[in-house]
């Protein structure tokens, strides 16, 4: 790890979560010295528990790894093509998870930390940046994520003249595997799908009858919830990470169509009877000793939370390595405040990355960090990076952040909201597929599948073209 003093071409990255870690890696690999500022453990947050870089505080899943049929899987593939440290570390420390890419969270963080500590062009500074960075930091990436410290958040708000807009992310509970009753539960992936490092039987499934489901919903709705501070009362949730009790409040059947859906699974002990609902658990560490309850983010207080979760058949004796909780998330009105290079229009020396920009999800945050790092490195060399094509997953996500949003007509609260990558962000195909390889017509869902596959193929081809024409020119710059 270098200890060289700051120079004019040094890039400062504030925050060493997924986005900041990826950004620092990309800058350093472009030959530019980096100082990576991380306030932990000098100052901890409400959600983090370690001083590790790229600590995963919510799920341990990077979601689908299917680059052919799923937008997030496509984003994985694009990041791998660009030498992503986050994807390299995730691939090296994956745990079975059906069609998803899930990781041993501690081993993953350790790998990212080690790589950054050992890079000769990266200095890690374990102090808080309390307020706007010093004026002589000319090339800065702010990647402080959902738990930006108050002094820095306040200074950004003052600089942008924007009211802060925040939402809550909820954390799912983690269960000790040996406390799960496998006489009731069984191993199976939905539709027996095999994913990276998996076998097609990677989830633990806990079945519920209708009576058990109704009793669970009643207890969930009645359970005592976390009290909000006054400044949190009007904070909305992100729909992709709703607490289970909030979903239940939207309708008693909501959970059966979300994380408790019973489709694609068959109880081997009673194969002719379809469970009314199913709770799934996914491996959380490489040893296979810990499993997280999939989609079960919650704001129930710890006592009631344990009682409610132990109503799930198979979890009646569950011991918890971690209970669910909440953390607050803050993000910018990026389409208004940022340019296409992710720079703050009011002060272009500041570039933003990760969840602060209005993307949602581990992979999305890291991918924006990757692009921010490439942009900062290009700027340090006197270049301006051309953004990836809008037809790619990277380009479509950046388009949403920096210009793809349409403001509502009314003058109420701004409507820009965090977004996971999805095919709805991509430009439509010029000629959507209508026929199969054998010449017969596509019908029903076949059209949707073929369309996604065509969009993925277009994205990967266009990204290869962008890499070939854009990155060598930046790398060759003095």
Automatic annotation (TrEMBL):
Entry keyword set: Cytoplasm, FAD, Flavoprotein, Methyltransferase, NAD, NADP, Transferase, tRNA processing
Subcellular location as annotated: Cytoplasm
Top-level EC class: transferase
SUPFAM superfamilies reported in the protein's UniProt record: FAD/NAD(P)-binding domain
Catalytic activity: uridine(54) in tRNA + (6R)-5,10-methylene-5,6,7,8-tetrahydrofolate + NADPH + H(+) = 5-methyluridine(54) in tRNA + (6S)-5,6,7,8-tetrahydrofolate + NADP(+); uridine(54) in tRNA + (6R)-5,10-methylene-5,6,7,8-tetrahydrofolate + NADH + H(+) = 5-methyluridine(54) in tRNA + (6S)-5,6,7,8-tetrahydrofolate + NAD(+)
Pfam families: GIDA
Enzyme Commission number(s): 2.1.1.74
Domain MnmG N-terminal: 11-383
This protein's record includes keyword Transferase: yes
Names of required cofactors: FAD
Primary residence: cytoplasm
Residues engaged in binding FAD: 15-20
Top-level taxonomic group: Bacteria
NCBIfam families: gid_trmFO, PRK05335.1
Functional note: Catalyzes the folate-dependent formation of 5-methyl-uridine at position 54 (M-5-U54) in all tRNAs.
PANTHER family: GLUCOSE INHIBITED DIVISION PROTEIN A (PTHR11806), METHYLENETETRAHYDROFOLATE--TRNA-(URACIL-5-)-METHYLTRANSFERASE TRMFO (PTHR11806:SF2)
Protein family membership: Belongs to the MnmG family. TrmFO subfamily.
Name of the protein in its database record: Methylenetetrahydrofolate--tRNA-(uracil-5-)-methyltransferase TrmFO
Organism: Tardiphaga alba
Gene name tied to this protein: trmFO
